[in-house]
Amino acid sequence: MVDILHRVAVENHGTDEVYRALTTIEGLRGWWTEDATGDTGPGGEIAFRFPDGGFDMRVLESEPGKRVLWEVVGGTPEWIGTRVHWDLHDDDGWAVLLFKHEGWAEPVEFMHHCSTKWAVFLLSLKALLEQGAGDPAPRDVKNDNW
Amino acid sequence: MVDILHRVAVENHGTDEVYRALTTIEGLRGWWTEDATGDTGPGGEIAFRFPDGGFDMRVLESEPGKRVLWEVVGGTPEWIGTRVHWDLHDDDGWAVLLFKHEGWAEPVEFMHHCSTKWAVFLLSLKALLEQGAGDPAPRDVKNDNW
């Protein structure tokens, strides 16, 4: 098992504001993909769609200002059954987000891509909060040739 | 042991051009840090400096257009002894770079940060080649509060 890890710090924001960007359809549309629909509450399922596919996430845990946990229940085979952890804490006025996408069976080339791409979207989330606008799909920064 | 993985594809470039950006001081200064000095050849050591510290890399392998391997011989304790792999291949006119920073003892918070930060610098490398200018330190995109 290999994991994708990331960390971003959001200036002059509380963890509750990052939490909202992770747990409301409006928030998710602002940094990951404009085509997000579904139920963001505990037990709910969220459908994220991109020009070339998408993912369905089941919300396993959701603790305001602290953490969110998703399980991938639909999408590309490598993602099915993996889990996406969002852990939040305050660091002297910065909201710090620790990210983990765990449960990859093998470190395939697609996993390398997804690691870079998650960083792109986490920087989009930071920009959404700090600057008022992110770069969600289909306007996302490209790192691939697919 | 846990690894940091990334993938970027550089449009309309050969792997030899990415290789040059990884194996010349001018190239390295164009995307990672403006303060890079040393011997980039096999067996050489390269000193990378940033406003808040730096790293020394020993070049273990260097195969033109194919791969580069560094071992970290100086810098922050978590990095000492870890290895940075740069593997290149062509994919229909795109130069694809597979990156691995392997040998982390534990998935500490600093490792989460470094994963995101490597993505930032790999996108800087892609921009250097595709657009003619990267964002090396100290002009790098910030993801931390340190």
TrEMBL record, chains A, B:
<comment type="similarity">
    <text>Belongs to the AHA1 family.</text>
</comment>
<dbReference type="Pfam" id="PF08327">
    <property type="entry name" value="AHSA1"/>
</dbReference>
<feature type="domain" description="Activator of Hsp90 ATPase homologue 1/2-like C-terminal">
    <location>
        <begin position="16"/>
        <end position="130"/>
    </location>
</feature>
<dbReference type="InterPro" id="IPR023393">
    <property type="entry name" value="START-like_dom_sf"/>
</dbReference>
<dbReference type="InterPro" id="IPR013538">
    <property type="entry name" value="ASHA1/2-like_C"/>
</dbReference>
<protein>
    <submittedName>
        <fullName>SRPBCC domain-containing protein</fullName>
    </submittedName>
</protein>
